[in-house]
Design goal:
The chain is of the alpha/beta class. The protein has four helices and six strands; from the N terminus they run ββαβαβαββα. The protein is globular, with a radius of gyration of 19 Å.
Length: 178
């Protein structure tokens, strides 16, 4: 007797991860003209950007609480137009609750424009310029994800979804290995 005949069925194609104005597939680099000044020391804070006006402050608070609960550190800075208060002091991180009247000055901007903004911040500020985090309402509500963007020395931007509570673990593990 022979082997039973197995019928192979085709799996449906996985939908590509898409985000941002250019619908970037997961980790596919997008070249830019940005030349990010990268400090020698590992930075203390990573910027959290809100690029759409549909993200309520209670969602920002929920996300920040998840990160803090998982990592026990306050390392996210809710990006605004005044980074001058960033020092090596943990008290400069964004600690929930966020003021309910807060509005992002980056609504309608792109991840590339967010990196352009980070490039203008003086190097003595304790801010991560190689990574930024974007809180997107749909991805956060549906999958508990945020998007982590990375820019390399050549100005290539890549992005990857990350489970919300693992944000700092992902970023810190890369910084440790570079």
């Amino acid at each position: 007797m022979g082997r039973p005949h197995l019928v192979q069925t085709q799996r449906p194609a996985r939908p590509p991860f898409q985000h941002d104005e250019a619908h970037l597939p997961l980790t596919v680099p997008r070249r830019t003209q940005i030349r990010m000044p990268l400090p020698d020391d590992d930075p203390l804070f990573t910027a959290l950007f809100v690029l759409k006006d549909d993200v309520p402050t209670n969602m920002i608070n929920d996300y920040l609480q998840k990160v803090i609960k998982h990592s026990n550190v306050y390392n996210l800075w809710l990006a605004d137009m005044d980074p001058q208060n960033l020092t090596e002091d943990d008290e400069d991180a964004t600690i929930p609750p966020v003021d309910p009247t807060w509005q992002s000055p980056f609504v309608g901007k792109t991840s590339e424009e967010a990196f352009e903004y980070l490039a203008t911040i003086p190097l003595q500020m304790a801010l991560n310029r190689g990574y930024l985090v974007v809180l997107d309402r749909a991805l956060y509500e549906q999958k508990d994800w945020v998007i982590i963007y990375r820019i390399n020395e050549e100005g290539e931007i890549t992005c990857i979804p990350c489970t919300a509570h693992m944000t700092l673990v992902y970023i810190d593990s890369y910084l440790w290995h570079r």
